[in-house]
## 1
Amino acid sequence: MSPMAENNLLLLGKDYPTYGVFDSFPVGERSAAAISVGSDVDSPSQRFKEDPLVPNEDALSVVDTDDWAGFAVADAHYGPESSHMLVERLHRIWLQIRPTDLQHFAQMFEFLRNGEPQLTRSETTLLAVAYDRASRTGFGLSIGDSSFVVVGQNQPPLTVNQRDMRFANADDRHSLARPRGFEFRAEPGDLLLTFTDGIDECHYRTPETSIQPADIAAVASGAGYDPLATVT
């Protein structure tokens, strides 16, 4: 079945390795996702790639139902194993269990650890967000420098999570035990954006010349705050 027909979507970077190609998909009626390895084959970030045949080490998950929505992104280096395994496992959990609160969400993180050694040095950022439509509130967990931004139509974009330089390893339960938690409120019509530093550091390690909050606001406004049009 096409991902366009589903209310959930899992995208793994190993399936999207071509430079200069940008893939975007609607998820249900109210969400969308996009993935790209980028266009700069000479980026300094190449030195962190484990396998030249798998240059895209990102992964993302979207689950969107009538009652709630879940979003997760991960940005690995030294191999895609950690980002792919952790996001894929979280996606499978979300399809069966809805996180009820921040503490419950943190317990889910602890059970993302792989049961078998990977024999890899792969490690990843991991950002996951859950939003309850009835209460208009949500919560999330963050490891590393990916971002969660609420874009309201009458206010500047608000970055909700605190970013840091930690990484999670799929073999190390301890690396998943203390993510940074956060809570937020979003009104109907607000956009909830999760993205890796490939957006706000698209010029590697120079965020000041990369995409800024004002750019995000302009894109969202120009897209009519439509999720698919925004990520496309």
## 2
Amino acid sequence: MSSRIPNYVRSHRRRWHLSQRELAFLLGLSSQAVISQHESFSRLPQTKALIKYEVLFGEAISELFPKLRRQAELEIAGQARIILRRLEGRSDKIATRKRELLTNLIQRLDASSP
């Protein structure tokens, strides 16, 4: 794991003086152990929990979980490059639109890379 903080759940929880138990209750999770796992990045939150974190702390999911965001960027860029290679040699309207989307995506992600 990189030295970059994987998520900001713990710092937000502490800023608001919430215990792991209280945070678990607010999010409707089964136990404080789940919060501990989210904070340590040993378990990814499910979609509903991610949205609840966002609602509770008023921060975008990608701001609360920057490592998760970066992993998603790398994975989708890799998959986009594969599809672009499959589209080589095609000039039909559908292939052109796909290339436009995927090329813009890759350029956007490359521009935002650290």
## 3
Amino acid sequence: MRLQCPHCGERDQSEFAYLGDATVTRPDPGAGQDAYFDYVYIRDNPAGVHRERWFHGQGCRSWLDVTRNTRTHEILSVEPARQASSSEAMR
């Protein structure tokens, strides 16, 4: 699988580290233990299009949000994580 880094161009996935689900948000500081337990340990395992967080450790060291089809491994989009988070806040 190859990822199109917005800073470095197309690179092999071996340059990146998969960091998990990009749609999970940290609970508020006042949330109880159950909310934090779910945040840390409970994850869905979706089949199909999913947004993931990746880190380009062997390149520009950027955090990226990758939209990928988990069934076919087709990469639909790659964008800097900051950009993805700010565009979601506008929705």
## 4
Amino acid sequence: MEEKRLTDPDVEFSEAYLKQESGEFYPVLSTLLQTVQSDAFGFTPEWRYYKDGKAWLCKITHKKKTVAWLSVWQHYFMIGFYFTEKTGTGIEDLEIHETLKEYYRSEKPIGRLKPVVAKITKHEHLDDVYTLMRYKAGLK
């Protein structure tokens, strides 16, 4: 079973804590966070401890819209996107890996939202994440 990281509610969140807890894939995570904050995206990552998830999670927003949720695990970090039936229709047309499309097709809705979740360990995985972020941010 995979172990969730960033689970200490008493720690003051910092870059050092993130680096320590994300270990070998910190360079990939750091690249993602730097890229989404760049002028090309203009997104804002907001780290907060969530009692219901018992961990620090990162909500990535564009203006007031939540684009994605990020969590850190022992051997990867996970990024989740949530779509309504209407907003998820364009996923099939995106230039992303087929496994992400299949994930969307096969997952049961959580309330009215259907997830697309990616486990990220390598820089090569980030292009699909950026594509999903652009798509989500562009939805009305």
